[in-house]
Structures are given as C-alpha cells and as structure tokens.
C-alpha cells in the first residue's frame, strides 16, 4: 500500500496531546520515569523462576520524560531489529510542535547565495531523491546516569533510534541557489520557537536553529520528507526535516523553515549556550559546538534489574554506533572491567547507522547480584572511556555504565 500523502498527513495532524495518544501509540503505564516494574522483563518480580527469554516482550509504549513540550523515550530493552519503527522512535522537542499545512508551507533559502529561492513541498519532491539509513541519538542520551544529577531531561538509554530517511540531498538545493564564496556555514532554522525562562535565559522568543560547516552540508546532509517509507509525522518534523549523518540529533533540525548561508560562524543559543562543551586548547577551556556522535555500545538485554536464570546460556544483545566512523568491535565484561570478551557483530556495517551485536553468556550457578558492561571500539581506535569527562557538561555521554541485574 502506498504511504499516505503529506497532505493527508497534515490534514489529520493531531494536537500535541492527541499526538501523544494516537500518533505514537503510547502506553500511559509504560516505564513511567524509567523505573517502574516491568513483569515482561522479570524486573521487580518475586517469581521463583525467571521469565523465559525466548518469549519476545510486547512493546509497552514510549516513556514520558516530559509532557509539555512532548519528549518521549524508546524503551531500549525492547530492541529487536535493525530499524526502529516510527511509532517506537524517541521524540525530542524543545518547544511546542508547530501545526503546518503542506499546501502553504514554504522553505526559504537565502543569505550568502547567488539566487535566493523559495521552495514548496511539491517542487522538492520532484527533485532526485535519496534514501539513507541513519542513527539519531539525542545529545543527552544517558543523562540520568550522571552524578551529581545534571540539568536537563533525564534520558536513560532510549533517546536513540535507527531509521531509513528519504528526501533531497541538501547539496542539490545549495547547487540550485548557488553559494557565494564568502559563505562559511549553513544555518538550519525550524518553525518551532519559544522562550527559555531558566538560566541561561533566551533573549525573548527564539527559533530552534543550528549551523553546519559548508563542507558537511554539501557532503551527506539530507532534507528528509519520509521516515521508514512513510511521510514524516508532525512529531518527527513534517513536512521537512534535516538529517545530519554521524552527528548528535540536535543538528537534524525538524520542521524546516529557512536555510540561511552566513559569512561568519553562527553563534545562536543552541549553538553556543546549549549543545556546546569545553574543549581545551593550550590549557584554556573554551566552548565549542557539539557535533559528532561519540563511539558507544548499549546493552538492551539484560535490562537494568532484570532477573536472569542461573546456570543457563543467556543471549546478551544490544547496539553500537560510532558517528562518522564505523564500529570495529564490541566487548562485554561481567567482572567490573577486569576481563573482556568480544561480542559478535551481526549484519553488515552501514555508514552512520547503528550495528547490532550479541554475546552468549553462561550465567553463573550461584544466585545473587551481578553486573555487566559493554564497550565499543571504532575504526579510528576510539574506545568508550571508563569514566566521565566533565568538560562535556551534560551532553556527549558515552562512559561505561554498568547494568545491574540479579541471578536467580
């Protein structure tokens, strides 16, 4: 069956509360706060026998991290395939979801260009399209594990997803308008806007906007209108969003309104005050914009506090990613990092996508508490660090975090 048209998608666009109920098919009792008991994983149960791992859990719904604006997390323990279904994909919003009509929506491309141009949805869809598989991870994924408690949304491990995106290469649009030689960056501005009242406060109402170097913008960035073969939903950026492969999710601006080419580096709120970290040059820390994903492996099963059966084989599995590089290996430790065993990477490597992995664990015969860690190494030789680098503030979270469990 053909995917629904953009017009149909927007005419049926729900309010944010309706979107929470219908568009994302949420379960209100699912994983609230990330710490609720989950019988389908054996978490917090008193059963004498742990659940059979071969029984695949049903999807419990997205985890509500914030209702206004809507921010929803994928329960990572339900990972069961290379592509994340649209209804399972995490949702990150800074402001209210804009209500847009594809028949009146326009994309302005202006600034340091030869021919400022306004595109409509139909014109963009007539241009040659491309489909790519890209993993998106929120820059704050894993923030709940930071000590002391960090400011911002307390994501656990599910602010990440892997999808196929279809759209027009940004380079094609830039070629159409012509880039002036003085241009140094491409600013992507969304239709979502609002005021940030807490420190650092915004100077009144601001749009969500981020910039890219010209080289990155021309290399592989996509202006996407479909996700996994279906037109974007309002929560995921309808009618058009950017997909920036290998970079944290904040770069993939949703609900695109304007593409602005600038002649000096962009220093907007979400480029400098937020989504920035300290980089030390000659011993002096200075804030620089967040860009590339760090190398990282996450364990899906066993889940945190899962009860696992003693004396049996258990399939440990998860996903790993490496930004602009590729995952070279994933290793597992069950003794606090003293020894490591290499996991099996499954499938084939796809640039900018996650790589699934698995490892068979012979669970000890002795009952009691246990823990497990996974670490990834990429083709550049980057390895997940054991400890947290505080210069990263509350973003770029990829240090090793043990999964505590119980053997019974």
Strand fraction: 25-35%
Biggest beta sheet attributes: 5 strands, mixed
Count the DSSP helices. 6
Strand adjacency order, main sheet: 4-3-12-7-8
The CATH class of one domain, by name, is Mainly Beta
CATH fold title of one domain: Immunoglobulin-like
In round numbers, the mean pLDDT is 89
Helix percent reads under 10%
In N-to-C order, the SSE pattern is HHEEEEHEEHEEHEEEEHEEEEEEEEEEE
Alpha-carbon distance between the termini?
47 Å
Backbone structural class: mainly beta
Using the 3D structure, state the CATH architecture of one domain: Sandwich
What is the strand tally?
A: 23
Low-confidence stretches: 1-40, 42-51
Radius of gyration over C-alpha positions, nearest whole angstrom: 22 Å
Rough shape? globular
Description:
This protein is mainly β. It has helices at about 5-10, 15-25, 120-125, 170-175, 215-220, 270; strands at about 65, 70-75, 105-110, 115-120, 130-135, 160-170, 185-195, 205-215, 220-225, 230, 240-245, 255-260, 275-280, 285-290, 295-300, 305-310, 315-320, 325-335, 340, 345, 355-360, 370-380, 405. The protein has a domain at about 295-405: Immunoglobulin-like. It is built from six helices and 23 strands. The strands form six sheets. Strands 4-3-12-7-8 form a five-stranded mixed beta sheet. Strands 5, 6, 9, 10 and 11 form a five-stranded antiparallel beta sheet that branches. A hairpin with a 2-residue loop joins strand 9 and strand 10. About 45% of the residues are buried.
